[in-house]
C-alpha cells in the first residue's frame, strides 16, 4: 500500500511534467550570421538621433574640452553604444562632474544600452564626454566630427560645435 506521503511526492513529480516538452532547435535564439549585424541591430544608424551636440573648451593649457549631447533611440529595438571617437581628440571618454573618475565611469560610452523609445541627455553637471589632447581644429566657432559606434558595426557621425570656456575671454589653444 502506498503511504499518503509517497502518493503526494508522486503527484508533485507528475505535476512537474504536465505541459512540459523537450526544447526544440526552433526555441533557441537566432544565431548571429557572420558578416551580418546581430539580430535587431541593423537599424541602429537609422533609429538613433543625436542632437544638441557641443563641446566647451575647459582647460586650453591642458587641451581638455567637455562634450554634451542628447541621444534618442526612436526604434523598436534596444541598441548598444560601444564606442565614441573623434579624430580631433587624442582620447575621448566619459566623466561625471559630481563623481570620482574611475576606469568604469570612463568606459561608460563603450557599453551604454539605449532602450527602445528612450531619450538620454548628457548635460553639463552630469555624465558627459571628455576630449583630451585635442588638436588645433578644436577652436571656438568651429565644428568637429564625433562618431558614435553601435553593436553590429553601424555608426552615426555628428558635428559638435566648439564653444569657448565662459570663464575666459579667449580660450583658443
From TrEMBL:
<dbReference type="InterPro" id="IPR036182">
    <property type="entry name" value="PCuAC_sf"/>
</dbReference>
<dbReference type="InterPro" id="IPR006311">
    <property type="entry name" value="TAT_signal"/>
</dbReference>
<feature type="compositionally biased region" description="Pro residues">
    <location>
        <begin position="31"/>
        <end position="40"/>
    </location>
</feature>
<feature type="signal peptide">
    <location>
        <begin position="1"/>
        <end position="25"/>
    </location>
</feature>
<dbReference type="InterPro" id="IPR058248">
    <property type="entry name" value="Lxx211020-like"/>
</dbReference>
<dbReference type="InterPro" id="IPR007410">
    <property type="entry name" value="LpqE-like"/>
</dbReference>
<keyword id="KW-0732">Signal</keyword>
<feature type="region of interest" description="Disordered">
    <location>
        <begin position="25"/>
        <end position="45"/>
    </location>
</feature>
<dbReference type="Pfam" id="PF04314">
    <property type="entry name" value="PCuAC"/>
</dbReference>
<protein>
    <submittedName>
        <fullName>Copper chaperone PCu(A)C</fullName>
    </submittedName>
</protein>
Amino acid at each position: 500500500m502506498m503511504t499518503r506521503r509517497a502518493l503526494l511526492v508522486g503527484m508533485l513529480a507528475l505535476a512537474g511534467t504536465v505541459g512540459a516538452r523537450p526544447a526544440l532547435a526552433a526555441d533557441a535564439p537566432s544565431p548571429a550570421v557572420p558578416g551580418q549585424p546581430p539580430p535587431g541591430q541593423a537599424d541602429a544608424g537609422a533609429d538613433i538621433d543625436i542632437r544638441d551636440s557641443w563641446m566647451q573648451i575647459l582647460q586650453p593649457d591642458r587641451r581638455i574640452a567637455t562634450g554634451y549631447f542628447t541621444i534618442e533611440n526612436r526604434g523598436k529595438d534596444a541598441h548598444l553604444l560601444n564606442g565614441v571617437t573623434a579624430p580631433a581628440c587624442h582620447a575621448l571618454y566619459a566623466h561625471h562632474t559630481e563623481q570620482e573618475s574611475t576606469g568604469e565611469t570612463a568606459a561608460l560610452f563603450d557599453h551604454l544600452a539605449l532602450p527602445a523609445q528612450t531619450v538620454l541627455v548628457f548635460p553639463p553637471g552630469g555624465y558627459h564626454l571628455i576630449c583630451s589632447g585635442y588638436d588645433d581644429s578644436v577652436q571656438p566657432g568651429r565644428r568637429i566630427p564625433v562618431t558614435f559606434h553601435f553593436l553590429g558595426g553601424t555608426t552615426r557621425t555628428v558635428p559638435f560645435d566648439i564653444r569657448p570656456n565662459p570663464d575666459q575671454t579667449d580660450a583658443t589653444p
